[in-house]
């Protein structure tokens, strides 16, 4: 794993950190000595991960949040600031969708729920974090979009893909508006990733078929995304602002 000594002692908030990419990212930052706050609607799951990664180098706390709810988000971000005395890195990772769908068969409740989880959440958590990030010497916002927000390639959910495209544009607005405060805002766009959840949903044949379409001939591991986010949070990425980094093995090339 790459080593970024400057990340030691900084404070990172990771939403959706009870499992999958968020949990791997919390682990990767803690290994750099970054103090981590794991925010998730699954408070018990987040606590389990936090307890496992807390160590001599870094503190780790779990905080319950519903990223779609304004009051819950305000409370959770205030709790992080009170616990650590500030905030340097925000990773908006909570997201997802329930099922493959078409526009024609999508009830409005599903549309609204999916947009709220994937786009409203990024707005709410970023807005709550901005005053704290402005006080950081190296403020960073990193949003987790998706290959489905970049291009329509595989069966997915139109609400999810539209929200993830919205995340990319919101990232650019954040980059433009917070740049003068020394805060960078970037996104990553992961391909299908072998999280325990995805591995359980897909057959071996599915995984082989998807992997055969990727020039690197494998799906992503959660750690591939964690590495990209460590880089974007590091001083090495200080002048990178408003980009979306495709972490997709070359599956699509923008
Ligand atoms: N896994 C993939 O193949 C893949 C591909 C592209 C993009 N992504 C994106 O990466 C991110 C992480 O994906 P993953 O597969 O690791 O997800 P996951 O489903 O494994 O984990 C998502 C986490 O978010 C939490 N969460 C759900 N609703 C929440 C809410 N309202 N408030 C707070 N927390 C909530 C869940 O409890 C869970 O811990 C998501 O934004 C997803 O859209 C994933």
- Round the mean pLDDT to the nearest integer and report it: 96
Distance between the termini: 27 Å
Widest sheet: strand ordering: 3-2-1-4-5-6-7
Shape: globular
Over all CA atoms, what is the radius of gyration?
Answer: 17 Å
Mind telling me which CATH architecture this is? 3-Layer(aba) Sandwich
By CATH's scheme, which homologous superfamily applies? Answer: NAD(P)-binding Rossmann-like Domain
Task: Label the structural class.
Answer: alpha/beta
Q: What's the total helix number?
A: 8
Strand content: 5-15%
- Which spans of ≥5 residues are poorly predicted at pLDDT below 50? none
How would you sum up the major sheet?
7 strands, parallel
Count of domain modules: 1
Q: Class, according to the CATH hierarchy?
A: Alpha Beta
**Helix and strand element order:** EHEHEHEHEHEHHHE
- Helix share, percent: 40-55%
Q: What small molecules does this complex bind?
A: nicotinamide-adenine-dinucleotide
Strand runs, count: 7
The gist of it:
This protein is of the alpha/beta class and 254 residues long. It has helices at 20-31, 43-53, 70-84, 108-133, 158-178, 196-201, 204-212, 222-233; strands spanning 11-15, 35-40, 60-64, 89-92, 140-144, 184-190, 244-247.
Give the helices and strands, then pairings.
Blueprint: E1 11-15, H1 20-31, E2 35-40, H2 43-53, E3 60-64, H3 70-84, E4 89-92, H4 108-133, E5 140-144, H5 158-178, E6 184-190, H6 196-201, H7 204-212, H8 222-233, E7 244-247
The structure holds nicotinamide-adenine-dinucleotide.
Residues 15-16, 18-22, 40-42, 45, 65-68, 93-96, 117, 144, 146, 190, 192-193, 195, 197-198 line the site of nicotinamide-adenine-dinucleotide.
